[in-house]
Amino acid sequence: MIEQKALSNHPELKETFNNLLQRLEQRISQKTTDMGEKPFTIPVTHYTDPSRFEKEQKLLRNKLTALGAASLVIEPGQFFTVTPYKMPLIVTRDKENKVRVFANVCSHRGAILKQEKQGCSNAFICPYHSWSYNLNGELLNIPGMKTGMPNCDKKSLALREYPCIIRAGIVWTILDNNNTIDTTFDALANELDHLLLDDFQFFHESVYYGDFNWKLGVESFLEVYHFSYAHGKTLPNLKYRNICLIDSFADHGRIVVPINSLEEQMKNIPRSDWEFLQHVNVMYFIFPGNFLLVFDDHFAWINIEPISQQKTKLTCTTLVPAKYEEEKKQKFQRISMGLEMITKEDYELCATIQKGLAGKSLDNFSYTCFEEMILRFHNSIDNSLQ
């Protein structure tokens, strides 16, 4: 089993985590939190304007898109299918052990190649006219090609391919073929890599659909100000209310929230022996709509995707070490269920917000200094739309 203690003892992580613990100690003693310099407002049209939503859709295709757990394509020929932003894709591993992302669309007349969610195959064969493609996306065969399509240039009819990278156990892509993916993680790359999450395996997935603008869903994960009120029954023993650390890495971010056991560690254990992941929750925000919630021995990946201007899909996936003791399974299940309950509470509230906007009684949302990460999120969107 992978020991999370060893992960946090990586020299670079150890220094980072120690600095974060010292900041938390100060915040707890002062009974305050990281926050912005002043309150701010955001026009409600950002959540209701169809033309803005269309611009955001183009933006999302130019930014990091998370597709699924890399553990679903461990062996050559394994594949899974997804449809981010209405774009059908196949994620597979070729015979050279390289993960590839292709359009799940036949080059002939556009039929979907694979309808199933996941599987294993040596080739992708169109169900309409049986055009076939290998795991590299190359066109293998066209029935009747000699007479029906003489002098065919097979290379020009290969499946469209998208760049991809595996980081934190997730396959990521950028749907705009004109963009590269190599530098998109630069600001957070080292920290995520040192956590050694790439080898974690798929454990559980939950999917939700909510009637609200996608940005409301993202915002619900960017502040802890609402925890005591919206999640009072789900988190009744929450000791540190509205205390967190916030840090930005270009458009991405990190939120650190102390849990109840941190106080005992600070009182009874020498500072040099303090542990980090055992006593905090760490949320990495990957702009524009993904979160990695890291626990002491596993993590959850949350993907927020707009379906329409007022409908949003949320996928919550739990990933765990490839090998773990049986008693850990109950812990993973318990935390997964708790996260589902909290998400459900947030999304029910988001739906009421969107519903309330229909009455046009508000021109702006008014935010507190506690919600600084939401301002940074909107600034990143605005800057990208320019």
Write up this protein.
The relative contact order is 0.17. The N and C termini lie far apart (47 Å). The chain has eleven helices and 20 strands. The chain has 386 residues and is of the alpha+beta class. It has a seven-stranded antiparallel sheet with strand order 13-19-18-17-16-15-14, with helices on both faces. A five-stranded antiparallel sheet has the order 6-3-4-5-10, with no helix packed on it. Strands 2-12-11 form a three-stranded antiparallel sheet.
Structural class by SSE content = alpha+beta
Radius of gyration: 23 Å
Shape: globular
Q: Name the helicity range.
A: 25-40%
Q: The CATH topology of the largest domain, please?
A: Naphthalene 1,2-dioxygenase Alpha Subunit, Chain A, domain 1
Name of the CATH architecture of the largest domain: Alpha-Beta Complex
β content, as a range? 25-35%
Count the helices. How many?
A: 11
